[in-house]
Every structure is written in structure tokens, then in C-alpha cells.
Inverse folding.
């Protein structure tokens, strides 16, 4: 795998991706952050050697390199999910590439359902810890020990100093920022009422279909990592409405300006 990583990194360096400091995965609810970046260069996922979509036509995803709030950043516009048929190793390959390019910090956003019913649709939640319910690990492959510690420590997967800054920034800007545990499932189907009840019992505050694999690999590579969820629906098993994807996307875009403020100010402070 090291050779494959080097080949991809060489390609990107040749395209001008020079020593970024921060990696950002733009999930649902943060897409507009792209307009705040002074773009220096970019590469389509399907042109990047060894990227999961290198053989798939029409994937719109791009890797972008530029500056934001005085820092050099590499940004994933579009991420990979297990529910699209990718393996956990595929989903997290870009994190290994961003690390090899030079990032020391990884920032992630996503959309999630609120399991904790004190949290409301449209609110933001800082991820303080997670539960991996994707059925496997992105570190479960031969040779993983050549890339980092196989038995990766998970006692504090989300950087406490960054999370503290996020909370201060939220307070200073009058932004509601809950804190909680994110459970990640495979999807793409939404959860049953019984599953929402189970998620609550096991200690989840929110549920989504991403982020945990990337955070595990960030920890494998000793990156500082942080993630924020935009809560797009309230998962009340006793009053569950059929899910409306448009409604989920609308809630995510409503919360987007706050999410952008948090990320921009955090990056400025790093
Ligand atoms: N479940 C899983 N993923 C989600 C949800 C949900 O309720 N809402 C947004 N992403």
C-alpha cells in the first residue's frame, strides 16, 4: 500500500498540492465553505491515480488545494461512503493521502439524525466521542502495521484542544453547539424505530453514515481530528415520521452559515 500511496501523492504534488497544513472533508452542511477558499489547484477524483473512483465515470468529487484564513488547506469536495459500495479501506484512502501530503489536522462535517431529543433539527453537535457500528474497521487489513500502530488508541479520538476552541467560538458567536456521541451505521436505509431505541440505549446522541472510518484512520496516523454534525432530523421512535430526504437537505443548508463560521474561526485560530 505504501507504493500506491506514494504514486498518488507524487501525482498530486506534480499538480501543485504543496504541503497543506489542514485537511477538510466537506460533508453535507458545509459545501458552501468552498467559496471562502482561495483555490490554488484542484484535481477531479476520477483523474487521481488509485482514488476509489479512478475507474468510475461521472463522479463529481474533487480534491482542492488552497488557502483559507491564512492556512494552506486540502479539501475533499465529496466523500466516499460504505453504502455506495466502497470498502472501508477505499473510504479512508484520501485521509492517508492528505496525511502524506503534510496535514497535521483533519476537520470533518456531516449530517446526522438526532437521537438525543433535547437536540433539535437544524442544531449543530460537536462530536465528543463515537460508536463504530459499520461492522468492520478501516484498519483491518494486511500490512496496516507498516503505516501506523495496528492497535490504535481510541481513548480520545477527537482533539480536546480543538473541541475546546470550537465551544469558545460557538459561545462568542451565539451559536448553539451541543456536544455528544455520534454512532455511525452503514445505511443507506434509515433506521427502524427499534434501531433508534437501541441507539439511545447504547449511548448515542446522533446517528449518521460517515465520519467514523475517517476519524479512525486519522488517529492511526496521529492526526489531530475534530468533527461537527448538523442535525437534520429528530429520531423519536414514538413519533416517527417517514423520512424526507429533501427536508434533511433543507435543514442542513439552513445550518450551513453557522457551520461555516465555526470552521473558519477555528482554522484562523490554529
Ligand atoms: N440516520 C442515519 N443517517 C442520517 C440520519 C438518520 O436519521 N439523518 C441524517 N443522516
Amino acid at each position: 500500500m505504501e507504493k500506491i500511496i506514494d504514486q498518488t501523492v507524487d501525482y498530486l504534488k506534480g499538480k501543485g498540492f504543496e504541503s497543506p497544513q489542514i485537511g477538510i472533508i466537506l460533508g453535507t452542511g458545509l459545501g458552501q465553505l468552498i467559496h471562502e477558499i482561495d483555490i490554488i489547484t484542484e484535481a477531479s477524483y476520477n483523474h487521481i491515480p488509485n482514488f476509489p473512483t479512478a475507474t468510475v465515470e461521472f463522479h463529481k468529487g474533487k480534491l482542492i488545494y488552497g488557502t483559507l484564513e491564512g492556512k494552506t488547506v486540502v479539501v475533499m469536495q465529496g466523500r466516499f461512503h460504505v453504502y455506495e459500495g466502497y470498502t472501508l479501506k477505499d473510504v479512508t484512502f484520501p485521509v492517508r493521502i492528505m496525511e502524506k501530503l503534510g496535514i497535521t489536522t483533519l476537520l470533518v462535517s456531516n449530517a446526522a439524525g438526532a437521537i438525543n431529543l433535547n437536540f433539535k433539527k437544524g442544531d449543530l453537535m460537536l462530536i465528543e466521542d463515537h460508536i463504530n457500528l459499520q461492522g468492520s474497521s478501516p484498519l483491518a487489513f494486511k500490512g496496516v502495521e507498516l503505516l501506523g500502530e495496528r492497535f490504535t488508541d481510541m481513548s480520545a479520538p477527537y482533539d480536546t484542544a480543538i473541541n475546546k476552541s470550537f465551544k469558545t467560538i460557538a459561545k462568542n458567536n451565539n451559536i448553539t453547539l451541543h456536544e455528544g456521541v455520534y454512532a455511525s451505521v452503514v445505511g443507506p436505509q434509515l433506521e427502524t424505530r427499534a434501531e433508534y431505541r437501541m441507539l439511545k440505549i447504547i449511548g448515542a446522541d446522533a446517528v449518521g453514515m460517515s465520519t467514523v472510518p475517517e476519524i479512525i484512520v486519522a488517529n492511526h496516523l496521529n492526526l489531530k481530528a475534530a468533527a461537527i454534525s448538523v442535525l437534520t432530523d429528530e429520531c423519536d421512535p414514538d413519533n416517527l415520521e417517514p423520512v424526507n430526504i429533501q427536508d434533511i437537505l433543507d435543514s442542513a443548508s439552513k445550518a450551513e452559515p453557522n457551520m461555516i463560521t465555526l470552521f473558519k474561526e477555528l482554522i484562523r485560530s490554529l
Remarks:
- The domain at 2-269 is CATH 3.40.50.1580 (Rossmann fold).
- The radius of gyration is 18 Å.
- The chain has a mean pLDDT of 95.
